[in-house]
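Narrative of activities, Objective 1.

The group set out to show that a structural description can be obtained from nothing but a protein's sequence at a throughput compatible with the screening campaign. Below is one input-output pair from the validation batch, recorded exactly as produced.
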Amino acid sequence: MKTDSFALRHIGPRETDLQHMLKTIGVDSIERLVYETLPDDIRLKAPLALDPAMTEYEYSNHIAQLGSKNKMFQSYIGLGYNQAIVPAVIQRNIFENPGWYTAYTPYQAEIAQGRLEAILNFQTMVVELTGMEIANASLLDEATAAAEAMALLFDVRSRDQKKNNTNKFFVSEEILPQTLSVLQTRSTPIGIELVVGNHETFDFSSDFFGAILQYPGKYGQVNDYTSFIAKAAANEIKVAVAADILSLTKLTPPGEMGAAVVVGTTQRFGIPLGYGGPHAAYFATKDEYKRSMPGRIIGITVDTNGNRALRMALQTREQHIKRDKATSNICTAQVLLSVMAGMYAVYHGPKGLQYIANKVHALAATLSNELEKLGLQQTNTAFFDTIVIKADAQKVRTIAEQNEVNFYYIDDNTVSISLNETTSIADINKIVSIFASANGKQATAIEALSEANHFPEDLNRTSSFLQHDVFNQYHSESAMMRYIKMLERKDLSLNHSMISLGSCTMKLNAAAEMLPLSNALWNNIHPFAPLNQAQGYQEMLSKLEQQLNVITGFAGTTLQPNSGAQGEYAGLMVIRAYHQSRGDHHRNIALIPSSAHGTNPASAAMAGMKVIVTKTLENGNIDVDDLREKAILHKDNLSCLMVTYPSTHGVFESAIIEITQLIHENGGQVYMDGANMNAQVGLTNPATIGADVCHLNLHKTFAIPHGGGGPGVGPICVAEHLVPFLPSNPVIPTGGENAITGISAAPWGSALVCLISYGYITMLGADGLKEATEHAILNANYIKEKLNGHYDTLYSGEMGRAAHEMILECRPFKQKGIEVTDIAKRLMDYGFHAPTVSFPVAGTLMIEPTESENLEELDRFCDAMISIRKEIEASTLENKNNVLKNSPHTLAMLTAETWDFPYSREQAAFPLDYIAENKFWPTVRRADDAYGDRNLVCSCAPIEAYMES
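Output recorded for this entry:
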């Protein structure tokens, strides 16, 4: 056994298991299985040209040496990013804990109550700090949250505004530059005209439907927007405010000024800078707009017994249902980071947050006073944490960088300084000495902080916040540790059992990949730090881009998109820019198969494209004749085809090259959705099948953890002719020579977690990556054959094989009174998370085991599914009081004095012997979604607030 091989540890089945698995499948080798699964004409002819695989130990040394090339300066750059202190109890028990970072999106509420409570805390924190009525469960970053706010305000225009095509959106010149860039990207395709200007001279014309303001402004100026918002409302203009969340503990919240939407980032609530991400953005609005709100909302409901339960609310707003009518394509949130930010508020409580804010403000006020004593002009008339100094920027910069300090240099004569919770009196003494030296003066030592508020009395916050018990009782480390553990025990994650979600690829997130994320040389770098201070990052990101180019067969990659849906959108916007560069502005038709993921048509609509749906055949494949007919019909306006490969039905379609050639012959580009890339790596690639651009889900194929629903990273890889259009950033230049504007806020998106994928590829190497793909196909086909005769597989390839996932037919069980949801809930009693339910076909289960699962776990899962199949057979349409309909079974049910069910307690909770060794107990019975939507409560509240009278 080659004990230093990372592939040996990552891939589940042992060498000794292979013959048994292959015999079950009915082939004599993995190579034969792959031959029967993939069309031979798309197989790669040579191994991937990647560096030899490193061992875990070699990689650990390599990443440490690379990290040492990053220079960890004190960063006072600001612009929406601030150094923060991650409380150790949160770092150890959440950030570094697979019980939290390996969980999946909480679609199965009964085994996600801990995470749901943590997100509910986050929503409550956001609602109360912003003064709004409802908040969602986080968005990707502040810039994209602002773009979602713009889209929401466009969607909720009055009837007259829609009739008159009122399409102007005012953007304050105080907005963060990266936010403006993303607003520019998002506005044009959907027909919104941005007007950037000074809010004090805005004319409130009837041509405008909305506006966005920054609070405090990009360089720290605090403005009172009360009169602006009132005048806007009088003219039917709805206002969004991008607000610094820490400042809202001291400043009047925008909700109390009348804002319609409030957005921002929670990064400074205990989240590492990470060279730009991942960070949880927040989005809060009025209750009347909840049906137009993007992303997920966690709500309170009751379970079967009437007890309090949490679940994702208003799920009918999900974009896979709205499809091309969607106003947003948001699929990923930033759950792990929102959990951490919410826990930061739980740990510190309202008084702790006020203490931190008061200290930061006092530091800024003291620094302002001391610099003015040196004869320097401080131009912000009101501020929270950021001051602006008139000085010789080049002189200051030279001395500052010699002292390992970063400021933001607005122009040759203006320097911005943003202070944060890590700043000390010693730090501001250093800052004063830098400016004194630049001006040839002597600094005086500061020994105490100033107390005065440097903003108008009218803007002092008077309303209370975070009064709920959860924010006021876990302030010791022991209490906090136990609270986190209590919640963790309510959630099923990969550290408990396999999560076999089709299309979601819940694979091992290896410890060796994760460890560097805790290193300050990686997690404490500001995204706008000078490039020479981030050489380790630059080398790692550049190398990762090259690795992804090799894997996909493409010429260029951008890592900026910070979710898969963002990658879809980025790919389409690059295609759009390419067509426009050739004068083909009219090319706006996107052909999308009916089997596609709902984010595909949503992304196309957001990119200003018209969606034409193409048919699929009975066997699940694309109807090539229908596709040809529509491609030819729309050839003059064809922009692209969006195709998932292998298909969403878990099959490698043999006609794929014919399909892509057909699109190219009719003037279109081919966008490949990378959701199923785990079945391609090392065997084939998007370039070989004829695609022009693909997005990759690094949180699927390339091992970034799902984190309970995020973080995600969705880079796009493109053919050479599309490289010039890769996206830019307004602060740190990125992208091609004809770059589109920003897709997300940071130059390289969620750069910190890109370390994970870099480690995954670097430690597997070409052979390991190919072996991982082969074993993903092996594991899927092993399950398919083990379940054969118990469940029908809906679609198979031409030789009867599945790709890396398969769809099980469950609709006939309705004759027994059993729905697919009953199977999903019953699996909880067996200790498993359900496979993907009712996607892409209603009433089915889509199973993807990944290469990480060993034979014993695959067998346990199959045993559970076969046992459930026997329970289905024993059910009848007339008898609803059965073990499936009553699942999941809680510990409270099992230990109750009475047992009113026609089956034993043992059958309910321990239907198979292995379960007793490692029993996972759901903490609530089935959550009532309909009840929760009728009585929508999305923040912490006493039971009386949601119980029906």
